[in-house]
Design brief:
It is built from four helices and six strands. By secondary structure, the chain is α/β, with parallel strands linked by helices. Helix 2 crosses helix 4. The two termini are 20 Å apart.
Length: 139
């Protein structure tokens, strides 16, 4: 079960940590500046300039394909199938996945996303996939 981390001063919970891979919404104030901050959406977040968003890398090629993203359309009833299809895409996307893994091997990372729903988003699936890959290779 993931560990939920509370922000100082009882702010809204913004991060869930698993295997030193956290997720955080880009619109929230950064919680931890000691982690590498990786934007993993394929599209730049609305209303945020590149100067405003403090990131270490934008790994847009790790995002779901445009066809998968449009098919899913944040429909919770499609979540299970979305997760399966995205896992397959990640398995075929060694370069972008490798870039994420390289960052994580250097230290803890935060996967940044823009969507409002924090439970049914590609960053959750990506974190799960990366955690499995790390567990399989570091044991």
């Amino acid at each position: 079960m993931p560990i939920v981390m509370a922000c100082p001063a009882f702010r809204e919970l913004t991060m869930v940590e698993t295997a030193r891979i956290s997720i955080e919404r880009v619109y929230n104030t950064p919680v931890d500046n000691s982690c590498a901050r990786l934007l993993v959406d394929g599209i730049w977040p609305r209303g945020v300039s590149k100067d405003e968003l403090s990131i270490d890398a934008w790994i847009k090629n790790v995002a779901p394909s445009a066809n998968l993203r449009k098919w899913f359309d944040h429909d919770r009833e499609k979540w299970g199938e979305f997760r399966n299809r995205y896992f397959h895409e990640l398995a075929d996307n060694r370069d972008a996945v490798g870039e994420c893994l390289d960052w994580r091997r250097k230290g803890p990372v935060i996967l940044l996303y823009a969507a409002k729903d924090r439970d049914h988003i590609q960053a959750v699936v990506l974190r799960e996939y990366l955690t499995q890959r790390l567990t399989n290779t570091e044991v």
